Amino acid sequence: MTAINVYKQRPDAGRAESPLFHAGLDELARKGKSRAGVTLREKKLLGHLTLRGDAKDPAFAGGVHQALGLELPVALTLVANGETSLQWLAPDEWLLIVPSGEEFATEQKLRAALEGLFFAVVNVSGGQTVLELSGAKAREVLMKSSSYDVHPSNFPVGKAVGTVFAKSQLVIRHTAEDTWELLVRRSFSDYVWLWLQDASAEYGLAIKA
After folding, report:
1. 69 near 81, Cβ under 8 Å?
2. DSSP character for 77?
3. Which pLDDT tens digit goes with each residue over 6-25?
4. Which of 133, 130, 192 is nearest to 166 (CA)?
5. Rg from Cα positions in the chain
6. The Cα angle at residue 24 between residues 179 and 104, in degrees rounded to 5
């Protein structure tokens, strides 16, 4: 089997900037409304890894559980353990999100646990970000933004769906009763941020650092 070199992509020195760094969300958080219907937070600089393999192979599923402590999620769902989550993307593909700075060690754990199997792990941390929407009016903002039915009967907590959002595409993840996450490509982040400001205007928007 060909040896694979795994490189640490996040440097130990230097300042990393999230896709919305230039929007000044930290500064806006100090000026936000206290009674807004929608609260937005960029969960910035998390580790994002795509994982591919055969979900029907007990050795693969067992190796993932050994490395992450998580079972492979079924279609259109995600599972989580603390700040680590694993989301189904396709029958043989998942998205793993881990706390900032843990992606390199996590990739090494996965490769060790899955050694000898057919699989792929790719670090995609630099290409996307997560925006968290919470509050009593968060679902109303989603209803304005996407044609996908986000009613609780169709979109319970734990569901995750890739869909059209405004005139772009992203993944909507329902993580708690009044909390949703938007998985946004870096190239769409400015557009989605501007859209959310407009869509939230009638409810009041607060920014959380």
Report:
1. yes
2. B
3. 666 665 656 778 888 777 77
4. 192
5. 18
6. 65
What's the mean pLDDT in 140-166? Answer: 97
Two structure tokens written together for 121: 């792990």
* pLDDT range class, residue 43, cuts 50, 70, 90: very high
pLDDT tens, position by position, 158-176? 999 999 999 999 999 999 9
Distance CA 44, CA 57 (A): 34
DSSP 8-state symbol, 136: T
Q: How far is the C-alpha of 115 from the C-alpha of 109, rounded, in Å?
A: 10
The packing angle between helices 189-200 and 138-145, to 10°, is 120
**What's the token pair of residue 198?**
């407009």
Please provide the CATH number assigned to the domain covering 23-207: 3.30.1360.120
Question: What is the distance between the alpha carbons of residues 88 and 61, in angstroms, rounded to a whole number?
Answer: 13
pTM here?
Answer: 0.90
d(CA 193, CA 75): 28
Give the position of tokens 């903002």: 141
Residue 138 dihedral angles phi and psi, to the nearest 5°: -60, -40
- CB 130, CB 46: distance < 8 Å: yes
